[in-house]
Design goal:
The structure holds 2 protein chains of 2 kinds. In chain A, strand 5, helix 4 (140-160) and strand 6 (166-172) form a beta-alpha-beta unit. In chain A, helix 1 packs across helix 7 (206-217) and helix 3 (91-118) packs parallel to helix 4. Chain A is 42% helix and 13% strand. Chain A has helices at residues 7-18, 54-68, 91-118, 140-160, 178-185, 191-197, 206-217; strands at residues 23-27, 35-36, 44-48, 73-76, 123-127, 166-172, 228-231. Helix content of chain B is 40%, strand content 19%. Chain B contains 8 helices and 7 strands. Chain B has helices at 3-13, 29-40, 75-81, 109-130, 146-150, 156-172, 196-209, 218-229; strands spanning 18-24, 44-49, 63-67, 87-94, 134-143, 181-187, 240-243. In chain B, strands 3-2-1-4-5-6-7 form a 7-stranded parallel sheet, with helices on both faces. In chain B, helix 2 links the parallel strand 1 (18-24) and strand 2. Chain B is globular and about 50 Å long. The termini of chain B are far apart. Classes of the chains: A alpha/beta, B alpha/beta. Chains A and B meet through helix 4, helix 7 and strand 7 of A and helix 8 and strand 7 of B.
Chain lengths: 243, 250
């Protein structure tokens, strides 16, 4: 897992551990280069890794290979946010979004490829967003990289299928995380209009996103590849657009 | 009281406390695979089909077989009336359908109407008839097709009916209420009787165009439907899942 230490990524890490996976978490917020979490009986390997750094990503996967001898599932969930008006967007803010979301996912896929090709149940699950399919003001870089993730997902699905690797994505809608709670408390996020546009009339719980990720990683999805599974309570369908 | 507790309380108040799954086309390959998964979880399954169950089927007290004609205007109402009195529909999987083949210029109006009636209008009738019996967190799954997304030469009526299901799903999702959900799955080429003639004629092309290099199995489609009906998919609503080995994105 890349970015498995917060929000959706953390929920996914927890769900994977619950289902008996051994999980290596590559996250920039990890303290040390390589650390086995003793609380979870060596099922959790925390690796400090900046996914923008291709060499660091390859070293992290080498550490996973050394520790456990392989890798069956890659989940790319590392992400950041740099919202702002497009007309004054700074190059560094644009570049860091592309580097973390898109380029970081690509390096992780590359680094994982040999192990995935050797697995008999290999699956990649990328994290897109409803932002990959809608136009959102002040989120040009986020919209662009998430649409890019879906393109990468389709491409790898076709290219690596002969190697037995499935590649799918999950596109979450709005999720109750500590991050969205913080935005709400600081007045940067107004939940009411979003909830009223969502047919299920609520935000998702992070575990609901994790369950969809785990489904795509599992044998239940053995004939599903190249698909982006939207988990948004119906938000993007927007069938009540005229109201 | 959390949402789930509220839902449970309301369901009990309605007197609908024994969940059932309803599967139309329940003796077809995909419908049967879905019914078997639900039966394996201890659910009561109402299997509605114009075909009788296969002779070698193992009888089970939970496997309630019902004769159902999708093109019969009263079929949906009869199905609902035949449900056990206290049954709330937890899963509704509408897998009855036909797959006619005809070049467009030769499709007669009768053939067009039959296809639309069985594949699309029957779903409308069943949704209308079952709405009052749906559990507050019921999951509905319709079976569309890659033909509904991409079109299919020689199957214009079939493709139109399957695309129609997507529009129906994306509209009715606003009016189900509670935490009821509706989604579709769109299978690619699945190895079953329905696709036999297609596979005989174009098998090599299809397999070459499928990144995973094989046909899907009814069990693989059923596994996706089972996920959509599970609590794990509780925020998946209005979604269409392609089950085609990558054919659609190739």
């Amino acid at each position: 897992m890349t970015g498995g230490r917060s929000g959706i990524g953390q929920a996914c890490t927890d769900a994977l551990l619950d289902q008996g996976y051994r999980v290596a978490v590559l996250d920039i917020s990890n303290d040390t280069a390589s650390q086995i979490d003793s609380d979870t009986q060596a099922q959790l390997l925390n690796l400090r890794c900046d996914v923008r750094d291709r060499q660091a990503v390859f070293e992290a996967f080498a550490a996973v290979q050394d520790q456990w001898g392989g890798c069956d599932v890659l989940i790319n969930s590392a992400g950041i946010a740099r919202p702002g008006p497009s007309e004054t967007l700074l190059p560094e803010d644009w570049n860091v979004m592309v580097d973390v979301h898109l380029t970081g996912a690509m390096w992780a896929c590359q680094a994982a490829f040999p192990a995935l090709a050797a697995s008999d149940r290999a699956a990649i699950v990328n994290i897109s967003s409803v932002a990959g399919r809608m136009g959102m003001p002040h989120r040009a870089s986020y919209n662009a990289v998430k649409a890019g993730i879906e393109g990468l997902t389709r491409s790898l699905a076709v290219e690596w299928a002969p190697h037995g690797i499935r590649c799918n994505a999950v596109a979450p809608g709005y999720v109750d995380t500590s991050f969205t709670q913080l935005l709400e408390e600081s007045g940067q996020l107004d939940k009411a209009p979003i909830v009223s546009r969502t047919p299920l009339h609520r935000f998702a719980h992070p575990t609901e996103i994790a369950e969809s990720i785990l489904f795509l990683a599992s044998s239940a999805a053995s004939f599903v590849t190249g698909h982006t599974l939207v988990v948004d309570g119906g938000l993007t369908i927007d069938g009540a657009w005229y109201e | 009281m959390n949402t789930n507790e509220q839902l449970t309380e309301r369901t009990l108040a309605m007197g609908l406390n024994r969940p059932v799954a309803v599967v139309t086309g329940g003796n077809g390959s995909i419908g049967r695979a879905v019914a078997e998964l639900f039966l394996g979880k201890g659910m009561r399954v109402v299997s509605a089909d114009r075909q009788p169950p296969p002779q070698d089927a193992t009888p089970s007290g939970n496997d309630l077989q019902m004769h159902y004609e999708a093109d019969n205007r009263e079929g949906a109402q009869k199905l609902v009336e035949a449900l056990p009195d206290d049954a709330a529909i937890q899963h509704l999987v509408l897998a009855a359908g036909i797959y006619p083949e005809r070049e467009f210029a030769r499709i007669s109006e009768v053939e067009w109407q039959d296809c639309l009636d069985i594949n699309l209008t029957a779903v409308y009738r069943l949704l209308i008839a079952t709405l009052p019996r749906l559990a507050p967190d019921a999951s509905i799954v319709l079976i569309s097709s890659i033909a509904g997304l991409r079109g299919s030469k020689g199957h214009a009526h079939y493709a139109a009916s399957k695309a129609g299901l997507l529009g129906l799903m994306r509209s009715v999702m606003w009016e189900l209420g509670g935490q009821r959900r509706i989604n579709t799955v769109s299978p690619g080429i699945i190895e079953n009787r329905m696709t036999q003639s297609l596979r005989d004629g174009a098998g090599t092309t299809i397999l070459t165009g499928t990144p995973l290099g094989r046909y899907g199995t009814p069990a693989e489609v059923a596994a996706v439907i089972d996920f959509l009906c599970s609590p794990g998919a509780s925020f998946v609503h209005g979604e269409n899942i392609s089950v085609n080995g990558g054919f659609y994105v190739n």
